[in-house]
Amino acid sequence: MQVSSASSKSEFTNSTTNVLPKKPTESLWLPRLTEKDFKLYSKESYDKKSYVAPQTEKCATTVKLLRPHKVSDDYLDEYLGDTNTENRTVDRDLNILMMNNLIICHINESPHCNVPHFELVQETQWGLGWIWELKCTKCKFISEKYKMFREIETGRPGRKSASINYGFQTGVINSNIDYCTIDGDAKSVKGLQEAMQEVFGPLWSVNRLADTIHRGQSQFREGIRANFSVGMFPGVTKAQKNDIKTAFVNDIKLRSHGIMRSLFMKYNGDRQQISKCLPGIVRYVVNCYSGNCGDTCRWSITLCNGGKKTSWWYKSINLNSHGLQNGSLIPTDRDKLLIESLLEMKLSQSALDQMKFFSNTNKCESVNRTISTYLPKIRISPAMP
Ligand SMILES: [Zn+2]
Ligand SMILES: [Zn+2]
């Protein structure tokens, strides 16, 4: 704002009375007004071609109002505006990294732009993740593109997946499958899976593999499908034998899970140490099921301590409820191979490798919890991002 003939000591404040010159003989330059202040002091002229300041009308000198800067200092107003109400989920550390990088790049490119004002110039969505490109409105600086999410190494060619999508998928999918299971409607589960695949892409099938619960289910399925010899299970009728087979396969599943949990506790999650003892454990468990339960059970993690009341045969609900004791099962060599491969579905290096994915989704558990708490308990339509 330019005010002719004013006191040089006059201080500029937002108070309207102080704007007027105190001594009408001196000229004074005041800083250009912000848009907000400009609206307070100005009025459109009669011809609507310029602005006048009504408060200076009685002033003897000429007062010239300069239009406000386009860039407002009222950032708060800007952020409260209608266009700035969207939320984004960004990685905390990547966000800090971006801020530091942005400042350094801006200084290098525009050394004379002292107080930058950054705005989003472009953002690209990648599932729940975002890629940002920023510009400085005070100079011509445009930043590089910043990925605001972490990526997952899928081992496949092509674009990498954002870990946030991965975790979200697992959470949403699991909660929805639970929901559908309660419905007892197998068809809707299948439909949902197809819908999810369409929405989330092929990564969805990786999730299925990664989920230990699902792996357990397929271990059960493979066990039921397995072609054990006729003499393996006691029982007179085919139905009796099948009944015992189901109990045995259930037992394999439960025992594998328990062994893995014990190993994680014993070795504090050290995968290298765990994988080293897995082959031995599988061998000993096969021995145990074959009736050679003894020292090998006692001195390794098979969940069996040998003997009678301390043996797995006695402790296992599945085996005990069907009257199975040490020596009840008579597996052939081929049967032993089948048992071994069923155990290896959970107790092997490759099973451990797949569990890496599982630990990855665990990190997103808090997000899943938030989402499942706040999302309405309805089926999620394929229209979701
Ligand atoms: Zn700048
Ligand atoms: Zn044993």
From TrEMBL:
Pfam families: Mutator (PF20700). InterPro entries: Mutator_transp_dom. Residues 1-19 have a biased composition (Polar residues). Residues 1-22 are annotated as: Disordered. Residues 87-177, 179-295 form the Mutator-like transposase domain. This is Mutator-like transposase domain-containing protein.
